[in-house]
Amino acid sequence: MESYSVHKVIGEGSFGRALLVQCRKTQEKYVLKEIQLPKNASRLEKSRREAVLLSTMKHENIVAFHEAFEADDLLCIVMEYCSGGDMLHRIREQKTKQFCIDDILKWFAQMCAGAKHIHDKRILHRDLKSKNIFLTGKGTVKLGDFGSACVLNCSKAYARTYVGTPYYVAPEIWENKPYNNKSDVWSLGCVLYELCTLRHPFQAPSWKCLILKVCRGAYPPLPGHLPHELRLLLKQMFKTDPRDRPSLRTILTSHRASRLLRAHLSSQAIEVEERGRRWNPDEGKKVLQHLREKSISQTTTLEDAELHGEDRAPVPRRRWAEPSETALQMLADASLLSSDDITPRLPEEGRRRKRWRREPPERLLNLLGKAKLSPSFSTFVIHKEGASPLADALSQPPGDDTDGPEQEVGADDDDERLRPRSDDDDTDFEEESPCDWMGHLEEVLKL
Ligand SMILES: Nc1ncnc2c1ncn2[C@@H]1O[C@H](COP(=O)(O)OP(=O)(O)OP(=O)(O)O)[C@@H](O)[C@H]1O
After folding, report:
1. Mind listing the domains of the chain with CATH numbers?
2. I need a surface site. Which of 17, 37, 210, 350 has the fewest CB within 10 A?
3. Whole-model pTM?
4. Is ipTM strictly over 0.90?
């Protein structure tokens, strides 16, 4: 920590603080995220392993990892500072003035390129939203916070991990189906819609209405002056069946909107061909073994945890030894890292297309009816059922007054030209052992 001076606390997330720091040696500014390390040994290992995973993401549209170290009971991740702030803030700054089409296409293309890079590694972001998408001083888009929901498994993060921010959550999640790469595509569709209209696509006066709107894929149409290809793309990104949504690869390479998007991308940003080898479980085991042995070494120096106040006793600090060149190389070669939580993997041959059964999210609506939810949609907080048992949640105002106009587009009422089609790319993947978050909620709520 002594390598950095702290400028200010820039925010507090569900996992800990984010600080703006400056490297004493290079004068470069960074964001340092402090994450409370779990006590449980296996979770601890997961947190470290997944932080190393973040370090393997190298793409011009992803917030760059700088270094990670442990101080006291904190995992500190130092990453690129995006001085342009987050996209939500940028959208709010516009008030009612619409973005020009070039900005929309450029930003959205860059988001897709960053997300495609993640998906190419068979990793799911799971929390794509305008607040997690950043702009550099030069106006380049960077996806941030990816994997952060996976880094920790603390119970506070649990519901959020599996539910996300309600405005951006795909229908399959409300239906307790596994999170998959197309769920990220849905969320990016929500961000695209926000860029085009400065509003959320799915808004409603209550949780119940919101969920039903999402599960019907019903949203107010995009303004007619936007390119037809973009409106078509959004319609397809909001297909209620994830199989009918285009993959990021399709969006950037063979969709009718690809040409518009690619015009705004550098050649490096699009990795058309998946490089590297496919997942090999033995390779993954070796990587993990290697990380366990080499990557995190105990340093003998005693250093001050500067951010925690001057009067605190010096604490031994474990430094991520670079995190071991060999380990990183092995990760890069493996092209996929094993993780129980976040790495969905299906052996190449055995990958089977799965069509999810469509059903109304009755279990969830029933659960919501019995739970008391925070009226805020921005954080998904569930309180234990108490004195007011009934469904405040189902009648609460959402705390956002920008509900769209009455007329809506249903993703499933396309004309012939827009008829749903399955994505041809065999790139679909999902969480392998998805967590039954609804069951967990039922348990917590003693329903
Ligand atoms: N790389 C970055 N560059 C600039 N600002 C950042 C960066 N990463 C995070 N921030 C800002 O720091 C603040 C805290 O971010 P953090 O990701 O810790 O939490 P959050 O996104 O507010 O909440 P949560 O992660 O729980 O959804 C936010 O205002 C965010 O915009």
Report:
1. 4-81 (3.30.200.20), 85-271 (1.10.510.10)
2. 350
3. 0.71
4. yes
